[in-house]
Write a structure and sequence with these properties.
With 159 residues, the protein is mostly beta strands. It has one domain: Beta Barrel (Cathepsin D, subunit A, domain 1). 3% of the residues lie in helices and 47% in strands. It has one helix and twelve strands. The strands form three sheets. The protein has a seven-stranded mixed beta sheet.
Length: 159
C-alpha cells in the first residue's frame, strides 16, 4: 500500500485573500491598516510622508513618518534598519528611488517578514500595498472579495 506524504513534507496550501485586507505592522503600529492586495506590484509599499536616512552604530537606518488613517491627522514616527534603495515604477510608469526596509506583516493569522518600500501615498486610498514578494507561495487573490481574513489577532505594537 503506498504511503501518503505527511503534512510537514508538503508545501502549505496558499490562503485565499480578497483584493483588500487588514494588515498589522506590529513593529510600528498598534492598529491594523487597510491594505490593497496588488499582484501588479513587485514589492510591498507603505505610506511614509517623510523619509530620512541616518546612521545608528555605524549601520544604515531610516526614520519615517506615517499617517496610518485616511481621515485623521494621527502621526506615527518610526525607525528601522535600512535594507536597500530601489528604483520602483509607480502605476503611471514614473521611476522613483525608494528606501527599502524588512518588517513583520501580520495578515489574518499569518505572520511573516517582507521587504517594504517607503513612499508618499497621501493622495491614495490605501496606505499600504501588498505586492508579489509577500503574496508568492502564501496567498491567492479572489478579486471579488474584501477582508476575507478579517482583522489580525495581534495588533499590539512591539515598540
Amino acid at each position: 500500500m503506498p504511503m501518503c506524504p505527511t503534512r510537514k513534507n508538503m508545501t502549505p496550501e496558499p490562503v485565499l485573500v480578497g483584493w483588500r485586507e487588514w494588515v498589522a505592522l506590529p513593529n510600528f503600529l498598534t492598529r491594523p491598516l487597510r491594505a490593497k492586495i496588488d499582484s501588479g506590484a513587485t514589492t510591498c509599499a507603505l505610506h511614509a510622508f517623510y523619509v530620512e536616512s541616518f546612521k545608528q552604530h555605524d549601520e544604515p537606518w531610516v526614520r519615517f513618518g506615517l499617517h496610518p488613517n485616511l481621515h485623521t491627522d494621527q502621526v506615527v514616527h518610526c525607525e528601522a534598519p535600512l535594507l536597500d534603495y530601489r528604483s520602483v515604477r509607480d502605476s503611471r510608469g514614473r521611476a522613483e528611488e525608494r528606501h527599502v526596509i524588512a518588517t513583520t506583516l501580520h495578515i489574518g493569522h499569518h505572520e511573516f517578514i517582507a521587504e517594504v518600500t517607503l513612499t508618499n501615498r497621501e493622495p491614495l486610498r490605501y496606505r499600504m500595498l501588498i505586492g508579489r514578494n509577500a503574496l508568492r507561495g502564501r496567498f491567492l487573490i479572489d478579486s471579488a472579495q474584501s477582508y476575507v481574513l478579517g482583522k489580525p489577532d495581534r495588533t499590539r505594537s512591539t515598540r
